[in-house]
Amino acid sequence: MSPTLTKSRALPRQTGKSTYFGKAAAKTIAKPKNTEIFGGLNRESFDHADPAEYMKKFSKGLSEELVRLISRDKNEPEWMLQHRLAAYRYFLAREMPTWGADLSALNFDEICFFAKAADKKGGYPSWEQVPSDIKKTFERLGIPQAERQVLAGVGAQYESEAVYHSLQKDLQDKGVIFSDLDVALEKYPELVKKYFMKCVPANDHKFAALHGAVWSGGTFLYIPKGVKVEKPLQSYFRMNARGMGQFEHTLIIIEDGAEGHYIEGCSAPKYGSNALHAGCVEVFVGKGAKFRYSSVENWSRDTYNLNTKRAIVEERAIMEWVGGNMGSGVTMLYPCSILKGDYSRADHLGIAFANAGQVQDTGAKVFHLGKNTSSQVMMKSISKAGGRSVYRGELRIAKTAENAIASVQCDALILDPISISDTHPNIQIDCDSATVNHEARVGRLNEEDIFYLMSRGIPSEQAQAMIVNGFINPIVRELPLEYAVEMNRLIQLEMEGSIG
Is residue 209 a contact partner of residue 91, using CB atoms and an 8 Å limit? Predict the structure, then answer.
């Protein structure tokens, strides 16, 4: 059973917009009194906030003095300080984006750009040594239980710095490096310098510049030539304090013939005042290598999620993006693959859920440069209670990209008459031998499917949830089992009690 969808096609070199207002699929169901959702996940898991006495030592607002303080606190080399200062100047010179979501309410003077809950550079050597209040927060979110069950390594960041990082010894023996980026900069300065913000330059846009000036923490993953890491590695990022900003930098280097899978999760409690997430992910995939980056982002409705993610993919290499965006009041996120090498490939799979008061402006960018490159983009969005979901995609096929093949599919599901879904594809083709397909579909829950399930004794809300889960299944099934379950639970949490 599936939602009723209307199909449309966007021609190459055109941009299009499709908006659908459907009638209510079913009567509104009263909210359950219990906040418990399937399998024990509940709102308190994400909305709980620890005491933040440490914030008394840190101030709000952005200045050159703060940029210098961050670099000095981390004892960084001179080149990184100069990089930060140049990025800060770019930030001051750039205007705020006027396209996409409305950012006018974001006040930089009300954001704390750097704060430490625990003064332990690089994190604690064992989970037992992590401060109890921080440890309880991560345990509530399933960290480090996931490490013991399915992961090859795990990292945890709280506010601006890591509190814990680990990697299985057999992978260490093979030369795999998995640490937070602050530690990597200290231990492997030349390796970091070679790649840091070479994929996403600081002058790329205003929030890349902001990130380059105040970045802190994050992840450094290096997989040597020919090494295949079979189990996923994970980092989880948590903002706790009111008005916090988080600017972690994820730098991933996958050498020729290597393979790996990395997962990021993130969340923050709701306060009623703005928070900002402007992280950066850079991935370098060597010749014949394969890498998958998965993320489940569940920031609070207070958060502006303005993340930048990009990969450079070499000859015969494969880059896979799998993502889910559930929280945040405003999200603007478009993972990008640059298919530099011949026969390189990129797959982008994503889900966005826009609930009341949310704008999920997400999509994908793919640049075909090498010969015989291929890409597939599959994006699904759900809008509910007046939420707005936007697919914003960019596909470019250069003159050099002979015989490129690209496919873009974006499906939108609207759960009530007041929600909105928009589609903005931008396709530029400069090579006559390219094969390109773009397909956009939008629709609502099928009332006949709901009636059929209810006639078999399934309650209305559960029936609707089953149909929605079927809609998102092509994306969710690409996650490891434990994270697929989490994604389904998050969807159910968003849908709780008010479909129709």
Answer: yes
153 CB burial (10 A radius; 0-12, 13-18, 19+): buried
- The beta-strand segments (E) located in 308-434 are 308-313, 318-325, 330-333, 336-339, 345-354, 359-368, 374-383, 388-397, 405-414, 420-429
pLDDT tens for each residue of 59-102 = 899 999 999 999 999 999 999 999 999 999 999 999 999 899 99
* Number of residues in the chain: 500
**Per-residue pLDDT at 284 exceeds 50:** yes
Q: Which residues pair with 277 in a beta bridge?
A: 246, 305
With beta carbons less than 8 A apart as the criterion, state whether 372 and 381 touch: no
CB 362 within 8 A of CB 336: no
Within 174-305, residue ranges assigned H as helices are 181-187, 189-195, 206-214
The CA distance from 86 to 89, in Å, is: 5
How far, in Å, CA of 325 to CA of 263, rounded?
14
Burial of residue 98 (number of CB atoms within 10 Å: 0-12, 13-18, 19+): exposed
Query: What are the backbone dihedrals phi and psi of residue 82, each rounded to the nearest 5 degrees, phi first?
Result: -65, -35
In sequence order, the β-bridge partners of residue 276 are 245, 304
Q: Where are the domains of the chain?
A: 4-495
> Would you state the torsion angle of the CA atoms of residues 66, 220, 122, 268, taken in this order, to the nearest 10 degrees?
70
CA–CA distances in Å: residue 95 to residues 42, 91, 99, 209: 40, 8, 12, 11
Alpha carbon 185 to its chain's center = 24
Question: 3-state DSSP helix/strand/coil percent for the chain, to nearest 5?
Answer: 25, 35, 40
* pLDDT single digits (tens) 307-360: 999 999 999 999 999 988 887 899 999 999 999 999 999 999 999 989 899 999
**How many CB atoms lie under 10 A from the CB of residue 273?**
12
Give every CB contact of residue 382 below 8 A, 6+ residues apart in sequence. Answer: 351, 352, 353, 354, 389, 412, 413, 414, 415, 468, 471, 472, 491, 494
Task: Give one word for 478, left, alpha or beta, with left for phi > 0 and alpha for psi -120 to 50.
Answer: alpha
343 φ, ψ to 5°?
A: 60, 20
Each residue's pLDDT tens digit, 135-164: 666 666 555 565 555 567 777 777 676 666
Give me 246's structure tokens: 């988080």
The reply to whether omega before 77 is within 30° of 0 (cis) is no
In angstroms, rounded to a whole number, what is the distance separating the alpha carbons of residues 459 and 450?
A: 9
- Cα separation of 26 and 10, whole Å? 31
**Nearest-CA neighbor of 276 among 249, 303, 254?**
303
